[in-house]
């Protein structure tokens, strides 16, 4: 009985350590809206396209952009215009909201690997974890589409690896986001980019309010 009690006590403590890990980082991430320190706008980066990816890019018709039908672009396009965003932690999930096209992501913190038959969706299946004070999010099961509005292609084989690091500076709190996109169909090598966001505690996200008549 004593041994069982001690083991249970240890397990309880371990569970509490998981729940309470990085409470400062979680609170700071949730402290307001994060806006791009570099301003808004679609990224003009060069992507390492394969021959197939290049053909898909060249065949993409701008007038067939699904966002013109007010369809949510999902990830990583929801992030690519350096969209303002916020974070909300609840139990074992993290909700990330982007102002661009009202994209809302669910990240399962310390979640199990996705099932093989899990459907592919615009936002994919995201699993998060803490690596010290760094938030790491890995996303799989993305639906085919576009990385940006210029038509850089996204296949079902694409995966995303993101890290989120907080940095305190004299003029405020900053969020450093590193995004690595891997897509063996369309990219000849993984593509990594870094974006810097600054905290605006008094801001709020505005609804995108997409209207077909505007196009």
Structure explained in plain terms:
The chain is of the alpha+beta class and 215 residues long. The chain has one domain (21-200): Calycin beta-barrel core domain (Lipocalin, Beta Barrel). Helices cover 16% and strands 33% of the residues. The radius of gyration is 19 Å and the shape is globular. The protein starts with a helix and ends in a 15-residue tail after the last strand. The model is unreliable at 1-21 (pLDDT under 50).
Give a topology summary:
Layout: H1 2-20, H2 23-29, E1 33-36, H3 51-59, E2 85-90, E3 93-98, E4 104-109, E5 125-131, E6 134-140, E7 145-146, E8 153-154, E9 159-169, E10 172-182, E11 191-200
Parallel strand pairs: 4-5
Antiparallel strand pairs: 1-11, 2-3, 3-4, 5-6, 6-9, 7-8, 9-10, 10-11
Poorly predicted runs of 5 or more residues: 1-21
Report the biggest beta sheet as strand number plus sense, adding barrel if it closes.
9 strands, mixed
Number of domains: 1
The average pLDDT value, as a whole number, equals 85
Give me the CATH fold name: Lipocalin
Counted by DSSP, the helix tally is 3
Apparent shape: globular
Q: What would CATH call the class?
A: Mainly Beta
Question: Briefly, what is this?
Answer:
This protein has 215 residues and is α+β, with helices and mostly antiparallel strands. The chain has helices at 2-20, 23-29, 51-59, and strands spanning 33-36, 85-90, 93-98, 104-109, 125-131, 134-140, 145-146, 153-154, 159-169, 172-182, 191-200.
